[in-house]
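Thread: Newbie trying to understand structure tokens

Hi all, I'm a second-year student working on a class project, and my supervisor (Dr. K.) asked me to get a predicted structure for one chain before our next meeting. I've only ever worked with sequences, so writing a 3D structure as a token string is new to me. If someone could post the tokens and maybe explain what I'm looking at, I'd be very grateful. Here's the chain:
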Amino acid sequence: MSLPFARLTALLLLTCAPLAVHAEEVIVFAAASMTTAMVDIEQGFETDTGHDLIVSLAGSSALARQIQQGAPADVFISANPDWMDVLENDGLLSKGSRFDLLNNSIVLIAHGQDSTLVAISDLPEALGEDRLAMALVDAVPAGIYGKAALETLGLWDQLSPSVAQTDNVRAALSLVALGETPFGIVYATDAAAEDDVHIVATFPSETHPPIVYPAAAIAEHDDEATQAFLDYLHGAPARAAFERQGFVVVPQ
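---
Reply by user tm_fold:
Sure, no problem. This is what the structure looks like when written as tokens:
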């Protein structure tokens, strides 16, 4: 009786061994605005594939510069096409791997849930001597989009001296959530993730460039595990995770 059991045990070990041998680590650099969704995606991808997913979240500009400097990223997901274009022009993307993943919108938020609604056109008066939280307006996509919208609406010159700039959009969200600033401009998906803010208004899409999140593999990092992650982003579980956070998934 013991011999067949021993053979069965050995067979099971041999059957399971390839999964451990082929499990790899995939390092993803993703825009900070994807924080909530990436928690679910990390768990789902690891469960489905056996690979380890390491997610580094920050402003797209900071992540792109780190990749330029040789940071060991396998995949980059940017909150705008411009920073992806920079890496592509530098020859740092795996050819043919780039695709548009998500769309988003930007909103004006206020601290708390009981604040009076304010029209965007009345923001300078409502702000008074206080500060407006925004991600870096010349580097981080959320800040770039917000500045463009305010310029289109003729409000930037009035508001720019009052802007409190942060390294990424989640930091701007935190300033408003903590009551450090009464108003902020963030993505709609960020506002949905924070109970201590509410959306005052949504900026019309025609006031700023289209908000597109492209994804791509980094050059010489397009191995099987990396491709498995890119494939996972196209699947139903990832779509559900993104939609739960309020993103619009770009049809493939």
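A couple of things are worth pointing out once you decode it. DSSP finds eleven helices and eleven strands in the chain. The CA atoms of residues 127 and 162 lie 9 Å apart. Feel free to ask follow-ups in this thread.
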